[in-house]
Design goal:
about 80% helix, globular, 8 helices, about 250 residues
Length: about 250
């Protein structure tokens, strides 16, 4: 039996985690979709008499997914539960993979299916609430929905990092850290690049063209890093944090 990954051992762990987390998943789905369904009565009034499924889908996906991801590895917050979880007959990789599959891939699939089922009901309630309501159709494979799923796939790893490294109130603590890092990055950008950007703006037209090209290249690099490196980096940090706790 491979000590890093054994399918039968992993499958048993995955089923166990699914049984433990089913209540949280069902409650999250019920609350989010329930609020969206009931809120359909007021949405046409607040949003120019429109119901935009793509926006509602995105809100529910991110809010529900980030909450569930913050609840991952919740056993680590208690000394007794932590010992029981860390001594389970499964490797660190199997524990990480099972939790990632449930909170990332699993949530995307379950939420998409659940919203697809609720969308006709939301349409019906919207039409009953207002005869003049405009309903923007829901397309599960539409460009905006797919892009939203891709963003969740990348960003979800941040909350897994928080779930492993932070104890108690993981979601607000993770959001606070993200805001703090965002402010620091903006401050660093302003201190080190602000003068350069201001001077380039005042240069000749050719220099401005060069500046635009440089900024375009920089943006392309940052975009590539976000889509291809950010999520794997979060997964590695989560795995190493889990490994450290086992040691």
């Amino acid at each position: 039996m491979n000590k890093y990954f054994d399918f039968s051992r992993f499958w048993l762990l995955l089923k166990t985690e699914m049984l433990k987390g089913r209540r949280a998943i069902l409650m999250t789905l019920t609350i989010i979709l329930g609020i969206m369904t009931v809120g359909t009565f007021t949405e046409p009034v607040m949003d120019d008499n429109k119901i935009i499924h793509a926006e509602n889908f995105a809100y529910g996906l991110f809010i529900g997914g980030f909450i569930l991801s913050s609840l991952a590895f919740s056993s680590l917050s208690s000394s007794l539960k932590s010992y029981q979880y860390l001594t389970l007959p499964a490797s660190t990789f199997e524990k990480f993979l099972s939790m990632w599959l449930l909170t990332c891939i699993g949530w995307m699939v379950v939420y998409t299916l659940a919203y697809s089922i609720c969308a006709p009901l939301i349409n019906l309630i919207g039409q009953l609430a207002s005869n003049s309501v405009v309903i923007v159709p829901y397309h599960p494979l539409g460009g905006f929905i797919v892009t939203t799923l891709k963003f969740y796939f990348v960003l979800q790893g941040v909350f897994l990092v928080g779930a492993v490294h932070l104890k108690g109130y993981v979601l607000p603590k993770t959001l606070f850290v993200l805001v703090l890092y965002g402010v620091l990055c903006m401050l660093i950008f302003y201190l080190f690049l602000g003068d350069m950007v201001n001077s380039e703006v005042e240069q000749t037209l050719n220099d401005i063209d060069f500046s635009i090209t440089t900024l375009h290249i920089l943006w392309s690099v940052l975009e590539w890093v976000f889509w291809w490196l950010f999520a794997p980096l979060c997964w590695i940090i989560t795995f190493l944090g889990l490994k450290e706790k086992e040691v």
